[in-house]
Amino acid sequence: MILAQHEHLPDHDDHDRAPDANPVVRVRRARTTPPWWFALPALLLFAFVVLVPSARGVHYAFTDWDGLDPDFSFVGLDNFSTMLRDADAMQAIGHTLLIAVSITVIQNALGLLLALGVNSALKSRNVLRVFLFAPAVITPIVTAYLWRNLLGPDGAVNGLLGAVGLDGLRQDWLGSPRLALWAVVGVVVWQFAGYSMVIFLAGLQSVPKEIHEAAAIDGAGPVRRFWSVTRPLLAPALTINLMLSIIGGIKLFDQVYALTGGGPGHATDTISTLIYKDAFTLGEFGYSIALAVVLTIIVAVVSTGQYLVLARNERAAS
Question: Where do the ABC transmembrane type-1 domain residues begin and end (predicted)?
Fold first, then answer.
């Protein structure tokens, strides 16, 4: 047998050796995984705009800087120890947590009820969805000034109570230390309950109707179907809503400052309003930045803990 120059006898090792899949895997991975350096410009911009100023801010938290004087001293943990002895700061932290928890519970409970209502076969459900979601698109500062006029001593709320013969319920809603905090909570819930409703509504519409029909055939009532069928499938929507509302409640500033300015007295002061006052009214920038660091830690700890718990419950439900 005569072989051409480009031909050769087959090697026995070529038949016995399994084909190498690594090149295929490498090619496939190269085609499906984008290069990491595509994100490099955005990461550099984020570092320049967020990370570097934040790191400098943490540095100032350990100084007595007044915000203007280029000469300042390093004071170590004095700002944080002063915070622990500051009754106003401790009260503001308590108000912040109370507002965050109250908003989270009330807003999500109301949002879920609204979602269940507009998810039914009502003819006006589309109009109701738009009407209930509309407050969420209004700027928070505009909403706060609107409700500041409505809740004033001569506002529409007291006028309506007097018109229907409930003069005994007329209150100075924003001027009473006992009611002002809950008035703020009510305004925030009024504005963002529709936002929670939309997220819950998306979760409800993703639940297959066949599951409800099968549960109904098995004799499960509406409450039982919701608790055993709908509730577990709403876990992702509940996780999103709880995360957004608890973080938003902890960082709340616009509505509080526009409605009450932290008053009367310090009855509605939160960490955010106290940071603003200490920095721009008292000129204690070092102390205010220390408060901001504490606020950041609270947000990180609460949101991380909440996410871990909700993610575990979500996996258990699925």
Answer: 93-306
